[in-house]
Amino acid sequence: MIKKILLLTLLISVATRSSFAQERGSFDFNKMFAGGTLVVGLGFGNNSQFTIGGNPELGYSIFKNIDLGLCGNYIYTGTSYQYSNGYTNKTNITLSGIGVFSRIHISDGFFLQLQPESNNIKYYEYVKETGYVINDLKDLQSTSFLVGVGFGSRDVGSMNYFTTILIDLQKDRYSPYRTYTGEISPIIRSGINFYFGRRKK
Q1: How far apart are CA 130 and CA 165, in angstroms?
Q2: CA–CA dist 175, 182 (Å, integer)
Q3: Mean pLDDT over residues 58-74, rounded?
Q4: Cβ–Cβ < 8 Å for 177, 146
Q5: What confidence category does residue 43 fall into, taking pLDDT thresholds of 50, 70 and 90?
Q6: How far apart are CA 132 and CA 115, in angstroms?
Q7: What is the CATH code of the structural domain delimited by 2-195?
Q8: How many other CB atoms are there within 10 angstroms of residue 133's CB atom?
Q9: Average pLDDT, the chain
Q10: 1 or 183: which carries more pLDDT confidence?
Q11: Phi-psi region of 22 (alpha: psi -120 to 50; beta: other; left: phi over 0)
Q12: What angle do CA 137, 52, 71 make, to 5 degrees?
């Protein structure tokens, strides 16, 4: 997964350099943006999950329809799995990490998003009825490859808003984007971006 992140970072660098070359080597400060998203995820039934967190990001609109950038991660996830014997496993996961993202705007308002991440995790698992601690791990590493679709405004040089629905294609055991048994748990992210400087007339 680290190789994927490094590869995508390299592609970002190459694409950005190509974009600058097309603009005669100039860097357009107005195409840089910063912002972030809120993270909410829900799962119900015997295998339930709740996720909440935030993702600050810094990016650049390199082409008319492509945004690339870096993002941070701080997320809390709580899962609950009830066995047929009446006992319930509870898991609390806190993670922080970094990643890269790309948004490809396919039409007015709609875009595709790819986002590989690498996260450091604190993982605490116990039996709800007895309090017995199954796992108390503080330095786990987890990788995710999020893909999804989004909708929002995109006006380069202005303030934008957007909402995405993402799923994790990686099958990492400690992924905060999957349930206790490894099933996909969709993540909803809503946020805003502010472009630096002022839009050129």
Answers
A1: 36
A2: 8
A3: 91
A4: yes
A5: confident
A6: 36
A7: 2.40.160.20
A8: 10
A9: 82
A10: 183
A11: alpha
A12: 85
Residue with tokens 């609390």: 92
Q: Which helix (H) or strand (E) holds 37?
A: strand 32-43
Convert 8-28 to b/e letters by CB count within 10 Å (16 or more is b): beeebeebeeebeeeeeeeeb
Higher pLDDT, residue 85 or 24: 85
Retrieve residue 165's tokens: 């629905």
DSSP letter for each residue of 50-89: EEEEEEEEEEEEEETTEEEEEEEEEEEEEEEEE-TTS-EE
pTM of the predicted model as reported, rounded to 2 decimal places: 0.73
Residue type, 165: I
Determine the distance from the C-alpha atom of residue 8 to the mean position of all C-alpha atoms in its chain, rounded to a whole number.
15
37 near 55, Cβ under 8 Å?
A: yes
pLDDT at 3: 53
- Which helix (H) or strand (E) segment holds residue 175: the answer is none
Which residue is associated with the tokens 């308002």? Answer: 109
Amino acid found at 53: G
DSSP character for 29?
G
